[in-house]
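Please produce the structure of this protein holding zinc ion.
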Amino acid sequence: MLGEPPPTPADLHFRLFGFPIRVHPFFWVVILILGMGGLGGGQADPVETLIWVVVAFISILVHELGHAVLQRRYGGHPWITLYGMGGLSSCDDCDRSPVSQILISAAGPIAGFLLAGGILLLIYSRLLEPIASPAVNLAIVYLLWINIGWGLLNLLPIYPLDGGRIARELFTLKGNVRQGVVQSLWLSVVLAGVCGVFGLLWLQSLYMLLIFGYLAYVNYQTIQAYQNYRSDYR
Ligand SMILES: [Zn+2]
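Below is the modeled complex.
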């Protein structure tokens, strides 16, 4: 479910900076649901929702482009998929060494932080004042929220979030690779469980409970698979 979805006739295809990009129809569905229920306090104003969809699309694309640029830097030919679970920048031919994998994973959130930083710079240098309007202001709020908020969330050491990928590489740097992977998976299970409960109790967010509960479950399943694999081959 976290992997690339199969192609559909409703897929949108284009290229940006030479990277092939595919947008699966569920991407729009999930973004719309998040925009109508997640932020706007329940009121779905069509213009506000449209601004949200455009800003979310650009922000997630910039995040994936951050990964893709580094993947290309490490010899790969990446392609980007935007789908119901967010975005993916995949490559089957880039360098797998821990250092390059850590930098590739960090580059997504960093691209978002740079975009947010650029917007803040424009605000503080008053360059955006000539185009200030309620719509532009709302777009800026959404843009800062997604690129800073989601960027930080993405750095949590929970697999397959970017922070979880970085943690996995760090855990396997010294010694036993399988032991390191299992340790990073346990960290994912515990932290995802804590975040899910925190989201429900503190933020009254059923959505956070579902997402983090699902991540805890997937990571726990992966640990089981690792242990079965070990007993099978001993
Ligand atoms: Zn990412």
